[in-house]
Amino acid sequence: MTTQVPSDVMTIREMCEAYDVTPRTLRFYEAKELLTPIRIGTRRLFTRRDRARLALILRGKRFGFSLEDIRQTLDLYDRDGGLTAQRQKAYELAMTRLAEMEAQRSELDVAIAELKAELQDAEAKGLVPKRAA
């Protein structure tokens, strides 16, 4: 008996190529129940829903969201059946993350300025050779 494979699915190899991820990454997200591919024997077939979720996961990770934050946001769509609650949660998380990133940037700007001053001081005192401009 053969199982009919839907035409709009992607194999794990196709997903890896399309989204520049490893099979291990896809299996990890599946184990965390963020993706739920169709299983036919040992094959994993990723649906349009899985592809949309993976795109959101990868974007969330790029912005520094935790997997739990990403899961909660994705689950809102499944639970409420729509985008309104999901968009509101994503917006709130994004505003919080943006504030965190801006604070980190400010701290980095201060640290960079201090380090540059230390290097210039060492150069001015002749403790190290001057850097080429």
What does this structure look like?
The chain is mostly helical and 133 residues long. It has five helices and three strands, in the order βααββααα. The chain is elongated and about 70 Å long. The protein has a domain at 1-62: Multidrug-efflux Transporter Regulator, Chain: A, Domain 2 (Orthogonal Bundle).
Proportion of strand residues:
5-15%
The strands making up the biggest β-sheet line up spatially as: 1-3-2
How many H/I helical runs? 5
What overall form do the CA principal axes indicate?
elongated
Q: Spans of 5+ residues with little confidence (pLDDT < 50)?
A: none
Number of strands: 3
Helix content: 55-70%
Give the CATH architecture of the domain at 1-62.
Orthogonal Bundle
SSE topology string: EHHEEHHH
What is the rounded Rg?
23 Å
The CATH class label of the domain at 1-62 is: Mainly Alpha
**Distance between the amino and carboxyl termini:** 73 Å
Task: Describe the main β-sheet briefly.
Answer: 3 strands, antiparallel
Whole-number average pLDDT?
A: 89
Helices and strands: which structural class? mainly alpha
Using the coordinates shown, work out and report the CATH topology of the domain at 1-62: Multidrug-efflux Transporter Regulator, Chain: A, Domain 2
